[in-house]
Design brief:
505 residues; alpha/beta; Flavocytochrome C3, Chain A, domain 1; 5-stranded parallel β-sheet; 4-stranded antiparallel β-sheet; globular; disordered C terminus
């Protein structure tokens, strides 16, 4: 088969390598250069290596708990049972995960994990190590690589997808394919504050929407709790809290226990909201205190964070550092089955662009790299199988323009601020209604994008409307979707673990 993979993070590179090794003719099309995207920025690691007191069942239970009862047990079971093979594969492809003196893998712990089960590389440079190894593996093959190519649309008709339309060097062209695997990542650039790189503009989800693919769970946007609140967004890995760092208010009190009995190691959505509330109440930023770990441990275990914090004027071994939440990961996306099939024939989706059902309402830390590897491999294996799409396709969505007649003119900055204020960490019915009215007004006038920036703006506007609509439709708070006007006591929230999966993993 002639297969096009769009995107070159862990999910896309894994899918491309497996497809190539199965004898398919593979082309990777990437928006920037090979390996660009979120994977190379990932700090924490990959969950899925179990010590003597740990197990796949425990990992599944933690994943289900974090997902607030909305994860798909079959998808979670697939993730944890396939995970060991995929981690072994990464090692075989050259990823040098950190090891103990006896040669065993060094395991870290992050929030909402009951055990230390996360492998990492270079201390806090796991994503960079994975990306480098997979890029090198691809470059040793005959896989065709097309860089600096923007995905304009999918080429599709009633029978399914037959290729892609791309913009390169100012010119639009079509590339035909027997199957297309979307691995284009998320849409962090919907928000004013995000850990995502500039290219995370939701291009794959928007193209799939226009082709009629079903999407789901767009209301579940994960905000990472701890971004260094000085200079450009820089993530302070959750693994820092896993090693013992604490969050402090102005009085030096560990305030996160007010929201959850696990304190700093509660699920990310809970910690992010606790930080936002505390910062608002005290009128100043909260601080992350890692001083108890000592300068030597911080420099060895977190060399990248240590360097950046010092470059920005902080000695985090001696003083707490200011942190704030930022948009980090999209749990929803293009609906797929357990093999990456979407509702449109011959269109697959893997990685953050996909809604596999693993994450439910809130992603468990360090499951994203694992998900990309697991489902990237599964999609490649399913290329020649019978098409059994996961649901009925939706009517294609018309491309929206960005020249509407709202009271304030459309700009990307205005959209990002609107989404941050009204469709962000804390939501209300009135705020969501205001966001939808504004977005609708911005999209009323049609203008045809001609540049990459204009195409990105159109994609962001389309996804903003879909996200605001999904958030409006969910009237109760769950996971990362938190309605202030239907607030419940998070500290008293029950566990949502499904017992059925624990019996079968």
């Amino acid at each position: 088969m002639n297969v096009i993979v769009v995107g070159s993070g862990i999910a896309g590179l894994t899918a491309a390598l497996h497809a190539h090794e199965s004898g398919h003719e593979v082309t990777i099309v990437t928006k920037g250069t090979l390996g660009d995207g979120c994977t190379a920025l990932a700090q924490g690691g990959v969950a899925g290596v179990y010590g003597p007191d740990d197990s796949a069942a425990s990992h599944a239970a933690d994943t289900l708990d974090a997902g607030a009862g909305l994860s798909d047990p079959d998808a979670v079971r697939t993730l944890v049972t396939d995970g060991a093979l995929r981690i072994a594969e990464l090692i075989a492809r050259g990823v040098g995960f950190d090891r103990m003196a006896d040669g065993s893998l060094q395991l870290g712990r992050e929030a909402a994990h009951r055990h230390a089960r996360i492998v990492h590389a270079g201390g806090d440079a796991t994503g960079a190590a994975i990306s480098a190894a997979l890029v090198a593996a691809v470059q040793r093959t005959s896989i065709n690589i097309v860089e600096h190519a923007f995905l304009v649309d999918l080429v599709a008709d009633g029978g399914g997808v037959h290729g892609i339309r791309i913009l390169t060097g100012g010119a639009i062209s079509d590339a035909s394919a027997d199957a297309v695997i979307l691995a284009t990542g998320g849409a962090g650039r919907l928000y004013a504050h995000t850990t995502n790189p500039s290219g995370s503009t939701g291009d794959g989800i928007a193209a799939a929407l226009r082709a009629g693919a079903a999407v789901a769970d767009l209301e579940f946007v994960q905000f990472h709790p701890t971004i260094l609140a000085a200079g450009p967004a820089f993530l302070i890995s959750e693994a820092v809290r896993g090693e013992g760092a604490t969050l402090l208010d102005d009085d030096g009190r560990r305030f996160t226990f007010d929201s959850h009995p696990d304190g700093e190691l509660a699920p990310r959505d809970v910690v992010s909201r606790a930080i936002a509330r505390q910062a608002s109440a005290q009128g100043s930023l909260v601080r992350l205190d890692a001083t108890m770990l000592g300068a030597e441990t911080l420099a060895r275990r977190f060399p990248t964070i240590d360097r950046v914090t010092r470059e920005r004027g902080f000695d985090w071994a001696r003083e707490p550092i200011p942190v704030t939440p930022a948009a980090h990961y999209l749990m929803g996306g293009i609906v797929t089955d357990l093999d990456g099939r979407t509702t449109v024939p011959q269109l697959f989706a893997v990685g953050e662009v996909a809604r596999t059902g693993v994450h439910g309402a809130n992603r468990l830390a360090s499951n994203s790299l694992l998900e990309g590897a697991v489902f990237g491999a599964r999609a490649a294996a399913a290329l020649t199988g019978p098409w059994v799409g996961s649901a009925q396709a939706s009517p294609p969505v018309r491309r929206q323009g960005t020249g509407g007649s709202a009271a304030s003119p459309f700009t990307r900055d205005a959209l990002q601020r609107l989404m941050w204020d009204e469709v962000g960490l804390l939501r209300t019915g009135d705020g969501l209604a205001h966001a939808r009215d504004t977005l609708r007004a911005w999209s009323t006038a049609s203008s045809t994008p001609t540049t990459v920036t204009a195409h990105e703006d159109a994609n962001l506007l389309l996804l903003a409307e879909a996200t605001a609509a999904a958030a409006s439709a969910r009237l109760t708070s769950v996971g990362a979707h938190h309605r202030v006007d239907t607030h419940t006591d998070e500290a008293a929230a029950p566990s949502h673990t499904s017992s059925s999966i624990l019996e079968t993993v």
